[in-house]
Design goal:
Elements (H helix, E strand, L loop, with lengths): L1 E13 H5 L4 H4 L10 E13 L2 E5 L9 H6 L8 H7 L9 E3 L5 H4 L3 E3 L5 E3 L5 E4 L1 H8 L11 H10 L2 E3 L13 E5 L6 E8 L2 E5 L22 H18 L2 E3 L8 E7 L2 E8 L5
Parallel strand pairs: 3-4, 4-7, 7-8, 11-12
Antiparallel strand pairs: 1-2, 2-3, 5-6, 9-10, 10-11, 12-13, 13-14
Length: about 280
């Protein structure tokens, strides 16, 4: 098995929203903000080669939204999902599985594309798309607070395509290479974090549970989270496992750091190492 990170561009979000109740005087030392209080974040995906399967974990924002939408998030950078796939020697037709940690627009947007005649279709026409029933139901009948993150043009075409399958307890046989899927409910209902063995280590793609290295301390929880106290409990549980077993955590939104390990210190769990996945 070979695992790659794929960069799909950069975007900006309000620093206060990204760090919740943590004061700016503390978080800005870790992630600097611009004059509008906006911080730069990555849109990083994971690509898993395993035999005849090529699994993409999350898809970034994509390119089908209009300029007004894109302007809200200051999308920038030269990287795209298509170019990053090409750099690894693949095209969209090679992807056999798309594993969606959850259906917020910055994770699922690239799963669906808009054609020149303004139709929506799957970006990966041969792929099985993986979600879970509880999260799918949550996303397709969203609460008022989360509704703006669940864009139906990103979700509806997946179901209509007939390519959608649900993870229903454990790891499906159709997802080779996965060791475990950790379900967490603090950020949104039943977000899925894939865990896999890799080069003698355990690799976990931690999505929005720990979006960046700056979010490792337990109180550093996003204002976007539906259940922040639960996020803190879920973070602590996963980080304790990661520290005890020397896991490699792949960060989806950290613009500077791809991977970290963590360790227990007198101040709690903190980052031990920072590195690129290719360095393993």
């Amino acid at each position: 098995m070979t695992v790659h990170t794929l960069d799909t561009g950069l975007f900006k979000l309000d620093g206060g929203a990204m760090f919740g109740v943590v004061p700016k005087s503390m978080w800005q030392k870790l992630v600097p903000a611009d004059d509008n209080n906006m911080c730069t974040w990555a849109l990083r995906c994971l690509l898993i080669e395993d035999g005849n399967r090529l699994t993409l974990v999350d898809t970034g924002i994509g390119s089908k939204q209009d300029e007004k939408f894109r302007g809200h998030f200051y999308l920038h950078g030269a990287d795209t999902l298509e170019n990053s796939l090409r750099q690894r020697g693949f095209t969209s037709a090679d992807v056999t599985d798309v594993f969606l940690t959850h259906l917020h627009f910055d994770h699922v947007g690239g799963a669906v594309v808009r054609t020149p005649d303004d139709k929506l279709q799957l970006a990966f026409p041969r792929a099985t798309y993986w979600s879970n029933q509880a999260h799918w139901d949550w996303a397709t009948a969203p609460n008022p607070r989360e509704k703006a993150s669940f864009l139906q043009e990103n979700i509806r075409p997946i179901q209509e395509s007939g390519h959608l399958q649900f993870v229903d307890g454990g790891v499906p046989a159709g997802l080779p290479g996965f060791q475990e899927i950790v379900l967490v409910d603090g950020h949104t209902e039943k977000m899925m974090l894939p865990v896999l063995p890799y080069k003698g280590r355990t690799l976990a793609f931690v999505a929005d549970l720990i979006p960046s290295a700056a979010h490792v301390p337990l109180p550093y929880v996003m204002g976007y989270d539906m259940r922040p106290l639960m996020t803190m409990q879920e973070k602590e549980s996963l980080l304790q496992r990661a520290a005890a077993e020397n896991w490699v955590l792949v960060l989806e939104h950290d613009a500077q750091t791809e991977c970290i390990t963590v360790q227990n210190t007198e101040k709690g769990i903190r980052v031990a190492e920072r590195f690129q996945l290719s360095e393993l």
